[in-house]
Known about the structure:
This protein is of the alpha/beta class. The protein is built from 18 helices and 20 strands.
Amino acid sequence: MPPTDAPQLAGIxxxxxxxxxxxxxxxxxxxxxxxxxxxxxxxxxAYICDVTDHDVCSLECKAADLExxxxxxxAHRSEAPGQSRKPPTPPVRRxxxxxxxxPSPELxxxxxxxxxxxxxxxxxxxxxxxxxxIAALVEPSGITVAYEGTEPLPLPIAEFSQAPAxxxxxxxxxxxxxxxxxxxxxxxAIPSIMDGLDVLLTAPNDxxxxxxxIIPAISxxxxxxxxxxxxxxxxxxxxxGPYVLIMAPTRExxxxxxxxxxxxxxxIERLKTVLLxxxxxxxNQLHRLEQGxxxxxxxxxxxxxxxASDSGKPYFESLAFMVVDGTEGxxxxxxxxxxxxxxxxxPGSKRIRVxxxxxxxxxxxxxxxxxxxxxxxxxxxxxxxxxxxHTLWIHLGAQLPTIQNEGAKVAASHEIVPDIPESVKHxxxxxxxxxxxxxxxxxxxxxxxxxxxQQRLLxxxxxxxxxxxxAKCIKTQSTLKAVVLHGEKTSRERETALEQFTExxxxxxxxxxxxxxxxxxxVEADLVLNYDMALSVASYIHQIRRCRxxxxxxxxxxxxxxxxxxxxxxxxxxxxxxxxxxxxxxxPAQMKRHQRPS
Length: 598
């Protein structure tokens, strides 16, 4: 109760709760006909500024209104010193985006069209702040950003609904899929991509990373399709799409991306996908493109063949958004040559670009980032050689690597080692190579470690021959059934093996895979066993990230280690020392000497 001597205001209940004043403009809805408009952003003007007497929607817009008011007063006094006449009323600032003209048959959709459609969809430009402030905002989430440009960056989002350009049906599908709030990388990546920035994203290959570009891709396609459907004349072939191109190194990776897109885009009109990869005849894929496709998911090899043919190149003349997922798999051997062919033959250049990688090796940085003319890279960032626009680097980890300028290339002084996940329990067994098969069989047949009826086991080995031999050993010396995944199996064989393992078909509960597959395929298991220790700590971390925790306990990663890996032990133990107590079981004596004293 208020004091008895407190003044009472007529018509106001002293005990009634007063809604707090909105801090930011995004907290207010867009106005209905007849509602007052905010003089700054055009949203619902819920308040009146006590200085300017203008309608504003939040404290954020009030500050902008006062800033403009003070600027006007200062300019007025400088023009007429000593005069006491009343300053003129400052002009009302409202955002107005000139509408795009009706689509013509000659139109080629590109980046500029896409950004104007996004601004119209959300009712104005994105809310921004200097990148140094953005870096401080996302740091508590375990995200590091680097940016060389001077222009401000979009603010990170805390809820998916704070990205107002997302179609309502997409938000509904995301809610049904259990996507309530954006993950750390999505908070920064989604608004940045939708504002037209080129982005390099270094994070583990999982569902969270793919959502960073899938959500903007669906939103882009929905906006473009709605705009082109307003044309009175039939839409020409080059405008039917695809508007979005997503490249991944393997067919299995492409299939997983397409399945995720189909689930989130369900019910959205005029949004279709095509898979351009080996395993299907090229004429069939060309026929699919003729039907009008908005999103193409492709491997570099099949895309290079398609662009090299006269019949395939015209389908990509309205490409506005391009993603390269699994960039580290695009910089070696024949895939690197195919990527070079794609970049040369892909028509047009005005498009938004996103690169996703599990780690930022020198080859990845050289593919994605390149210094502008006469400029040295700063804090790891430089100009994108494809668009001459600055690239935003978003890294899931505490810090970026040191970047050095070596001639015309940007190189990392060391491989980025991601943080070890705290949701996994780590067990290391000192096992010499001849004893590995026997130790493996003792683990997979002991229910204390593995229960095949309820769990899935993922075993990583170093090479293809080792994977085949180990799978045969498991089948002959136990009652378990296993499948094998490696690069020399056909696309259809890998796809079938992956489906049998994830769904437990035919009683299969074990998958033996090479370490390369850990980066290119998003497969998870209850127990991960590193039969051959990875060649680097970063690779080890990427492999154990395939271990999924349950609701009531941690995931489990068991690793065989021996004298062949002694060079990795100091760095590995240093990483393990950073984990909370209880997530690392007692280490072998050969590793303990590197352990931090408790």
